[in-house]
Amino acid sequence: MLSRLLNLFRAGPLDVKYQGAAFRLYHQGSATERGALLNPDYNIEELRFLRAHVADRGVFVDVGAVVIEHLSKEEWQADCIADMLARGYAVAGKTRSNTMLILGS
Question: Residues 47-65: pLDDT tens digits?
Fold first, then answer.
């Protein structure tokens, strides 16, 4: 309902401040960006994790964003996490929909 209301006021992307940074959110085609626009705490646990573990100017890659579209979630998650653990990563946290990994020392 709120998404429809937003579209009445402004079609196309919105430039907003979110979690202290400037974003151009394409809310009409992205549930994630719509969530960030409408809920200031959207994915807050994941953002806290990234702030704690990614250095300034560091790079974060969300491998599940593309892969999961082609495989069932359970198969992908088990295979991917097992592979990353075998490569020396450790589980640093979990949310409802994400497992956060860090490279072991």
Answer: 888 888 888 887 777 766 5
